[in-house]
Structure prediction request, 343 residues.
Amino acid sequence: MPELPDLTTAAGWLPLAFMIVMGLAMLAYVVLDGFDLGVGLLLPFAEDDDKDLMIASIGPFWDANETWLVMGVGVLLVAFPMAHGTILTTLYLPVSLMLIGLTLRGVAFDFRVKARADHKVWWNRAFFGGSFLAAFSQGFMLGELVLGFELSPFAVAFSCFIGLCLASGYALLGACWLTAKTAGTLQRQSIVWARRSVLLTGLGVAGVSVVTPLLSSSIFDKWFNVTNLIVVWPMPVITLVLFAVLWRSLKRLPVRLDQSNEYGIWVPFYCGVGLFMLAFHGLAYSLFPWLVVDEMTIWQAAAAPESLMVIFVGAAVVLPVIVAYSIFVYRVFRGKATPLEYY
Prediction:
């Protein structure tokens, strides 16, 4: 564990503050854009009559959700330029594929509604392809982060596995979102999709949890040092509890729907969000204060304190606006989804 600097100085607390902002922005992106990526991943498995409603359920949110990705990567670029060069140089290919996927989603989202009937199916496929490409690339990058940006055959295979698991996790969030935002046959089908996504999502969480402590002796000591057990071991226990509650809720919901009772309809989605938050917390705990494990801390990678202070003032103005806008949008468009209308 590297020695921490004096956190009462600007050179000490500013990098830490930007690390928190970047981490929270990436967490917000994974959770918020995760469910609409998941809806895109589920699109090919739905009936044609339900696909428009699936898109409508994310229509007011999906574009704004990607703002958090822009903010997270922007903070990495301006606040940690040394790490930005190292990380994005190593991950150039998956980052490029992710951007292609996100661009393809955006184009397909707009054109699928306005296209002729015989072309609409191709835009649906493009929306699915862009969603899968973005989700898989993000999972691949997560696997590389856990393994310290290695490119050995094992590292690539592991990262591909995590890419599939993250796509399954996004599908789980998307299915739980549709369960709460829709009704009828689509709602029931969404429950089935959610059940099928649980296993691979759990394997991904387990894979990252097992491999991360093996990456570095300092990370291993954090998790298995006797003095830390009381602090860290509730996390895997709570994770297992959330998986159990999620599964139990998904098994019981069809019975409630038969009785026209939607009590607890949001429980699966909240459990899915909780799982992602716990996984993020465990990863952050493991990696802190490294940006590149055992090579570069956040203070070594940070820009000059004078530059960080200017950026900090800007972030203090912009961040509350983004949060307020996001809350406003989700409040305005709460309730069941209705078909999109274009004039």
